C-alpha cells in the first residue's frame, strides 16, 4: 500500500488526501467469514459502518443480506441489489420509513418499542399487508464489556427485557404483525471471542424461555453485530477461529432448535480494507511538544477523536520537495497528529514516537474502512473532500507481483 500511495502522489499536484479501499482484501475477508461460520448462521452487513455503493456492490454477492437503519440505507441497498434480504432496525422509525420498508420488501423489521408495534400494525393494515418482525430486546445483564453498549445499561435501544412478555402479548394480538423472533444487538467493538460466544449462548437461553412460556413459534435469533477491531494493538485482533469453535459448541448445546442465527456485523467486515492517506502540511513545536498538521483530519476520520484514542498509522516517505527553503522535519520524537480544523479536538493520534517525518510525507492510517468517512462531519470548515479510490488487483500489479500483495496484505485478521 505504501508504494501505491507514493505512485499516486507522483501523479498529483495538490497535497495528497484520499480514502483507499483494498477491494481484493475486502472480498477475501468476507468470503472467509461467511465460509467459516457454522451452518444455520447467516452473516448480514450493517450498512451504517460504511454505506459506500462500491463497498455494497462488492459485498452483495457474498453476504447473506444487509442490515439497514434508515430509509436512506434501504434505498442505497436497493440501488445495488433489487432482491437481497434486508433487516431494518433502529429507534424512532417514521411512517414514511415503515411504508418505504414495505415498498422495498424488507425481510424482517426489528421493533424497538410497544408504540412502534402499534404503528407498524396500523400501517400494515392500511396497506392490506402484514409485516414480519423481531422484537429488539434490551437485556438487563450479561452484555460483554465492549467499547459501546446499547443494552445491559439504560439506553434508547430496544424493549426492556422485563417488558418483553407484554410486548409478546401485544404483538400476538395485532393481526397484521408476524412475530418471528428476537433481536439482541447490544454492543460495539467487543474484541473478545469468548464473551461474544457466551453472549450468543445467553441470547439462545432467553429466546428459548420466552418461546416456551408464551407459546410462540420463532424462526430467527438475531444476535446483532459488535465484533470489534483492536485499534490499539493491531496484532492482537478478535480471534475468529476461537469464536467459531465456541459458536459451534453453543449450537450443539441448543441442537434441539433449528432457528436461523443472524449476525449483522459492520465494523468487523469493512474496517480492515480501508486506508486513509493524508499529507503532512506543517510541523511545529508548541509548549515543548511536536505537532504534525495534516491536509485532512477528524472531518474525514472522526473515529479517533470520538473515542479519544490514537489511530494507528505508518509514514510513507515522499522524496519530492518543491520549495527553495528548508523542509521541516522531526527525528526520533513523539508527535501529535492534528488535522486542518480550527479546534483542539481535531487530533488523530497523540504523542506517538516516530523515527522520522517531514512536511510532504504522507501518513497512512489503516483500519479506516468502517465508521471512518461515514461518521465524519465532512463540511465543517468547507475544506475539499478526500478522493475515494477503490484499488483492484490491477492497481497492485504495476508495483509488484500479485503474489507479493497477497502475502503482504493478506488480512491480519485471517493470518492471526
Ligand atoms: C450499528 C449496528 C450494527 C453493527 O454494529 P458493529 O459494531 O459495526 O458490528 C448491527 N446492528 C444494529 C442494530 C446496529 O445499530
TrEMBL record:
One of its GO terms (biological process) is lysine biosynthetic process via diaminopimelate. Keywords: Pyridoxal phosphate. GO terms for molecular function: diaminopimelate decarboxylase activity. InterPro entries: Ala_racemase/Decarboxylase_C, De-COase2_N, Orn/DAP/Arg_de-COase, Orn_de-COase, PLP-binding_barrel. The active site is at residue 342. Its cofactor is pyridoxal 5'-phosphate. Residues 29-270 form the Orn/DAP/Arg decarboxylase 2 N-terminal domain. CDD domains: PLPDE_III_PvsE_like (cd06843). The modification N6-(pyridoxal phosphate)lysine is found at residue 48. This is Diaminopimelate decarboxylase. It comes from Cytobacillus oceanisediminis.
Amino acid at each position: 500500500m505504501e508504494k501505491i500511495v507514493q505512485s499516486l502522489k507522483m501523479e498529483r499536484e495538490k497535497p495528497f488526501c484520499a480514502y483507499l479501499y483494498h477491494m481484493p482484501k475486502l472480498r477475501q475477508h468476507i468470503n472467509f467469514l461467511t465460509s467459516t461460520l457454522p451452518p444455520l448462521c447467516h452473516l448480514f452487513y450493517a450498512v451504517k459502518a460504511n454505506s459506500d455503493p462500491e463497498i455494497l456492490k462488492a459485498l452483495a454477492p457474498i453476504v447473506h443480506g444487509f442490515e439497514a437503519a434508515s430509509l436512506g440505507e434501504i434505498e442505497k441497498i436497493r440501488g445495488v441489489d433489487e432482491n437481497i434480504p434486508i433487516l431494518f432496525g433502529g429507534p424512532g422509525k417514521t411512517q414514511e420509513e415503515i411504508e418505504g420498508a414495505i415498498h422495498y420488501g424488507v425481510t424482517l423489521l426489528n421493533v424497538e418499542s410497544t408504540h412502534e408495534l402499534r404503528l407498524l400494525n396500523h400501517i400494515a393494515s392500511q396497506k392490506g399487508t402484514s409485516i414480519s418482525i423481531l422484537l429488539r430486546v434490551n437485556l438487563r445483564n450479561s452484555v460483554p464489556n465492549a467499547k459501546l453498549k446499547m443494552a445491559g445499561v439504560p439506553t434508547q435501544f430496544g424493549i426492556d427485557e422485563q417488558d418483553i412478555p407484554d410486548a409478546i402479548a401485544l404483538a400476538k394480538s395485532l393481526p397484521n404483525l408476524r412475530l418471528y423472533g428476537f433481536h439482541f444487538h447490544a454492543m460495539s467493538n467487543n474484541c473478545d471471542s469468548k464473551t461474544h460466544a457466551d453472549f450468543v449462548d445467553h441470547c439462545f437461553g432467553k429466546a428459548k424461555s420466552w418461546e416456551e412460556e408464551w407459546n410462540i413459534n420463532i424462526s430467527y435469533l438475531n444476535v446483532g453485530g459488535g465484533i470489534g477491531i483492536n485499534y490499539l494493538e493491531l496484532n492482537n485482533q478478535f480471534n475468529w477461529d476461537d469464536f467459531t469453535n465456541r459458536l459451534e459448541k453453543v449450537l450443539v448445546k441448543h441442537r434441539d432448535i433449528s432457528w436461523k442465527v443472524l449476525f449483522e456485523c459492520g465494523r468487523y467486515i469493512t474496517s480492515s480494507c480501508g486506508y486513509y492517506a493524508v499529507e503532512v502540511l506543517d510541523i511545529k513545536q508548541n509548549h515543548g511538544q511536536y505537532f504534525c498538521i495534516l491536509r485532512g483530519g477528524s472531518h474525514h476520520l472522526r473515529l479517533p477523536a470520538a473515542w479519544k484514542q490514537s489511530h494507528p498509522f505508518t509514514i510513507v516517505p515522499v522524496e519530492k520537495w518543491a520549495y527553495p527553503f528548508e523542509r521541516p522535519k522531526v527525528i526520533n520524537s513523539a508527535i501529535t497528529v492534528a488535522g486542518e480544523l480550527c479546534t483542539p479536538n481535531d487530533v488523530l493520534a497523540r504523542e506517538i514516537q516516530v523515527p522520522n517525518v517531514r512536511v510532504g510525507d504522507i501518513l497512512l492510517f489503516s483500519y479506516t474502512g468502517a465508521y471512518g468517512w461515514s461518521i465524519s462531519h465532512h463540511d465543517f470548515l468547507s475544506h475539499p473532500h478526500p478522493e475515494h479510490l477503490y484499488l483492484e488487483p490491477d492497481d497492485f500489479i504495476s508495483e509488484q507481483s500479485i503474489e507479493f500483495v497477497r502475502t503482504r496484505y493478506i488480512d491480519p485478521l485471517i493470518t492471526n
